[in-house]
């Protein structure tokens, strides 16, 4: 269908330039817009995260507010838009970022495999499912060359098992149990972030150099520190205790397994059923088998399932249904998690000195741990670096903690000032912080850990030569 109105030269209603080819993409005949203006309008919908609306016919024309029909847009723009559609996987249970046609390039940035474009936000559902594939991807990097970290499942069970569905995983470097020199403890903030990440949004929109913990792991290696990475946000696991009688129920649960917070991946559930025939927990095992058999049926059905159905699944603005979850015993809150990991794992490290980096709500977890275990921790604690974190000293806190903070803790706060510049509260005594505060070098909270890594290690090891270079590219 052609949308050019007449052979005479007309004006674009937006830029008022004369053009032979104008496009009317809404129901209002007066809204004739040139290709360049359309290109700008669509680009701005992409950068503002509204392009998903176009596919649902909910993106409105800037002139009349009627919905824009995408099949009326200039051909070149349609091609661009179709490349965004190629980031919709052809399954509702994606396992890898490649299924989204995304991958990380050599600069550790997420890019479209075919067009090399940056990530384009489609819907929250699409974003969340991609995000959980990134969780899996980052954890697989942590476990493989050159990092080769060990994955530990908590709570520790009396008998070894391959069934980890009701546990939470943390990671230790392979020298954790032997390195006597020092150990770095990494505690992320609250929310969706899983081991290896400071901020999911930065891993998606910026790069792993900013959003992930790899730069900290690399610096730790340089300074001969072992590393332990906590997982304080995974405090519950998915349970299915009702028999599943419909395919829909199975599909909902499966989807949530891949997407939801506090879940172990569906993969592990399936492995469990295959591997673990000696489980003592028979009730649980049989439920897993039900999931497996129904999801197998589901997969078969999905092959025939038309792509329109999958597309509308990803374009839906409804949140994914919440799965039924149970709290992980002994690790049911972030604070409990940190305490458990300290008592059961960190105390097994032979390191003489401990260094801690805590971001955001991780700071609160750390304060809780210090108060609970100060006599054991303080003697071997070298330094603490907070990155835009939630922590404060209370009047009841011990002098040991207060003095430690004065001498050996630093807080990198979100700020426009250059990284490391002292933030001075000299005129406002009520705001005197618990420890010295310096700029993280970025005004946004989620960027602070990524931007301050050099400063953190200069604080930990002041004898280091100052490095003026940009953030080093690390080899994953
Ligand atoms: Zn125009
Ligand atoms: Zn219009
Ligand atoms: Zn944060």
From TrEMBL:
User: Single Gene Ontology BP term?
Assistant: regulatory ncRNA-mediated heterochromatin formation
- InterPro entries associated with the record: AB_hydrolase_fold (IPR029058), Arb2 (IPR048263), Arb2_dom (IPR053858)
Q: Which Pfam families match?
A: Arb2
Q: Name one GO cellular component term.
A: nucleus
Membrane-spanning residues: none
According to the entry, every stretch annotated as the Arb2 domain falls at 94-418
- What is the protein's name according to its record? Arb2 domain-containing protein
Which species does this protein come from?
A: Rotaria sordida
């Amino acid at each position: 269908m052609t949308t050019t109105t007449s052979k005479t030269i007309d004006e674009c209603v937006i830029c008022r330039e004369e053009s032979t080819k104008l496009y009317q993409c809404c129901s209002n005949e007066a809204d004739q817009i040139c290709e360049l203006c359309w290109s700008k309008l669509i680009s701005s919908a992409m950068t503002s995260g509204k392009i998903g609306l176009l596919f649902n016919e909910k993106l409105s024309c800037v002139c009349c507010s009627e919905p824009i029909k995408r099949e009326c847009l200039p051909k070149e723009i349609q091609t661009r838009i179709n490349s965004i559609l190629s980031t919709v996987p052809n399954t509702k249970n994606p396992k890898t970022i490649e299924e989204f046609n995304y991958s990380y390039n050599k600069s550790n940035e997420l890019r479209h495999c075919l067009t090399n474009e940056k990530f384009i936000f489609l819907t929250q559902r699409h974003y969340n499912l991609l995000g959980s594939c990134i969780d899996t991807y980052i954890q697989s990097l942590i476990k493989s060359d050159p990092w080769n970290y060990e994955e530990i499942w908590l709570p520790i069970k009396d008998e070894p098992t391959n069934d980890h569905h009701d546990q939470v995983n943390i990671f230790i470097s392979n020298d954790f149990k032997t390195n006597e020199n020092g150990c770095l403890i990494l505690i992320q903030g609250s929310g969706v972030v899983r081991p290896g990440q400071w901020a999911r949004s930065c891993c998606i929109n910026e790069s792993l150099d900013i959003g992930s913990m790899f730069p900290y792991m690399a610096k730790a290696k340089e300074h001969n520190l072992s590393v332990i990475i906590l997982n304080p946000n995974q405090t519950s696991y998915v349970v299915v205790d009702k028999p599943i009688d419909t395919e829909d129920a199975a599909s909902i649960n499966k989807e949530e397994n891949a997407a939801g917070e506090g879940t172990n991946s569906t993969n592990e559930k399936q492995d469990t059923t295959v591997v673990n025939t000696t489980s003592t927990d028979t009730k649980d095992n049989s439920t897993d088998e039900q999931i497996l058999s129904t999801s197998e049926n589901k997969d078969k059905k999905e092959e025939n399932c038309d792509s329109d159905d999958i597309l509308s699944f990803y374009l839906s603005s409804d949140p994914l249904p919440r799965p039924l979850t149970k709290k992980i015993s002994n690790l049911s809150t972030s604070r409990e998690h940190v305490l458990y990991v300290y008592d059961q794992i960190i105390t097994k490290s032979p390191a003489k000195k401990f260094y801690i980096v805590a971001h955001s709500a991780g700071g609160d977890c750390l304060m809780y741990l210090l108060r609970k275990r100060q006599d054991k921790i303080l003697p071997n604690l070298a330094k603490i670096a907070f990155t835009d974190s939630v922590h404060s000293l209370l009047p009841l806190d011990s002098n040991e903690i207060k003095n430690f903070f004065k001498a050996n803790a630093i807080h990198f706060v979100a700020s426009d000032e250059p990284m490391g510049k002292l933030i001075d509260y000299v005129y406002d005594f009520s705001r005197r912080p618990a420890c010295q505060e310096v700029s993280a070098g970025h005004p946004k909270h989620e960027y602070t850990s990524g931007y301050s890594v050099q400063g953190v290690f200069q604080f930990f090891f002041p004898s280091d030569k100052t490095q003026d270079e940009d953030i080093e590219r690390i080899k994953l």
